[in-house]
# Entry
Amino acid sequence: MTSLKTLYPPIDPYFTGMLDVGDGHQLYYERCGMPGGKPAVFLHGGPGAGCSADHRRLFDPAIYDVLLFDQRGCGRSTPHGCLEANTTWDLVDDIERLRALVGAEQWLVFGGSWGSTLALAYAEAHPARVSALVVRGIFIATHTEARWYYQSGASLFFPDKWARFVAPIPAAERGDMIAAYHRLLTGDDRARQLEAARAWTLWEGETVTLLPDPAGAASYHDGHFAYAFARIENHYFFHDCWLEPDQLLRDAPRLCGIPGAIVQGRYDMPCPPHYAYALHQAWPEAAFHLIEGAGHAYSEPGILDQLVRATDRFARD
# Structure
């Protein structure tokens, strides 16, 4: 029986820097692995989550030269929690700036959850710059997906956690939870902002895995992290991620010729697998892996196995 692939050993960056992308934003970025190796870029989730040290370990460090960066307003990028000049298309432009910075004609693009949204938006805008595309926990940023997770759908499976999520919102405003949270997270009351940020963030932290993972959810309690995560994520979803309805599926033919892998948990509550399957139908070149016994998180064993197998496979191409 074939054993499951796991993360590569811990690795430190060989270079870190800050890139001025204009509009007052400074992006933290780091490069890991083999200098001058196969270029790759990692796009984190959220939006607003930032990168972690474990994200470096999804790639063979003897082959890949991986760039990871914290998207506008989150992680080590500044200003923290900033919503101005912070849209999907700003981030797509940032990816191109970073590609030019490292001097790569093409690179492998890897993104999970919101990172899959951003990866698809980038690849559809710049297909000639993408050597391969690995996406996980597919979110194509439709209004239906947002309502499933933040209004009615996932709430039916987590009634206890949903009760904590709606608690900061007056009953009369709960017909549109994204709009109600937007008012709190962009309001002037700092205490209510932080209360709302923690509730929004904890809802996600406690529903991303198939089985409870208290250790994994612990970081979602941190107020500094929650402030940027909730504000930026809500900001994007409130504005429909600056995408036209079904834009990413509509424009999927632009991915024609790009090799790829789609990895999806069967029991993914934030991002139901219907959308990953629809993407596969629109982009049949991509290998499609629907993982049994798995939710949304990249760290779940079956999902992680296929992600590392994908980066290993494209390392040989």
